[in-house]
């Protein structure tokens, strides 16, 4: 995962998927590919088969963006559907934990395993009493009778030369949805979408939430070998540890927060949050869903996550396509990785109301099964070790997994699902 979920440096000073501990993660579809972030490694591990799926976190785009860049499915759940207990926070008002996996059904298995109430995360107390079986929502006929809106004014701001191929594939996707019995309501626009105001408010909300949440997180650690207790301590540690690559990778975001004279409990932070919440809900996603009587919104993934992030709404990204062979290379802001190039994947996203994961999974599965985009391009790199036989043997013997050889064949997906679900159930039950 990108260090501090990109909540440290300016864009020109940072790169997705880098951490002092693990180094630089690279995408699997083009040499020196920017993996996007911040849950970069989770998406790549799923993409190349190092795991059936992986857990990821999202504050604003950190599941769906690396998901699309790795040609996998990513589910950013409703805020409060999954626990964030002892997950390093950016904002308790936005953070969500969700799965990334190669298929919708794999991701649905994982979401069913991790969804539920947790006494260590009060936000989960408001979720419905009965957690759905999300796997049963995987329905090939999911488009039939569904109404999906396209908020063009939520897409237009982000368009440039690099998005032309994405938008062409997106228009084709709308025809596929119609062909499957879905109803597309075009220009189901947001009443208001002021990106500049949204960005200014988000800077205040996320910054003040991060400073407060980090102190709370550090106070709960049973072992704190470097004696760090707040953002100031973390900043000093980072400046003085050579692995942190300071000042090449600056701490601009932290310095900005340390210079603020208000906290996340101040009127300034509250006003910024309420302004964004109004734009995201009544003037944004929820308003569009209600005005046009929609089951979901459908957007290119690159434009999908901003408003759902602040409103705590669910988003699922599914592979949509790949940049064509004649695509010109575009580097990341730091100039160290390739952001756009031939064969790099991109996705389509379905967005809904709170607790509408069943609906979104049904729509995503219907699209996935009609297109099977993931199979149309293979990563240029691949692991040389397969886990299948070892997982199967360990599960049958109810023993820890041991790695004793290479070039094994993966087990059937049903076995993998059962193993993943059993492991996650054991993990979460041990915390209660």
Overview of this protein structure:
With 432 residues, this protein is α+β, with helices and mostly antiparallel strands. 35% of the residues lie in helices and 12% in strands. The chain contains 13 helices and twelve strands. β10 and β11 (338-340) form a beta hairpin. The two termini are 26 Å apart.
Rg from Cα: 21 Å
Overall outline: globular
Helical run tally? 13
User: What is the mean pLDDT?
Assistant: 92
Strands, count: 12
Order of helices and strands: EEHEHEEHEHEHHHHHEHEEEEHHH
Helix content: 25-40%
Structural class, from secondary structure content? alpha+beta
Q: End-to-end distance, in Å?
A: 26 Å
How much of the sequence lies in strands comes to 5-15%
Low-pLDDT segments, ≥5 res? 403-415
- Sequence of strands across the biggest β-sheet: 3-5-4-9-12-8-6-7
How is the biggest beta sheet arranged?
Answer: 8 strands, mixed
Features of the shown structure:
single chain, 432 residues, alpha+beta, eight-stranded mixed beta sheet, two-stranded antiparallel ribbon, 35% helix
Element layout with pairings:
Layout lengths: L17 E2 L3 E2 L15 H8 L5 E6 L5 H6 L3 E4 L19 E6 L2 H11 L32 E4 L13 H16 L3 E4 L8 H25 L11 H10 L11 H8 L7 H14 L4 H7 L4 E5 L5 H6 L3 E8 L7 E2 L6 E3 L4 E7 L5 H15 L16 H10 L15 H17 L3
Parallel strand pairs: 6-7, 6-8
Antiparallel strand pairs: 1-2, 3-5, 4-5, 4-9, 8-12, 9-12, 10-11
Helix pairs in contact: 3-13, 5-8
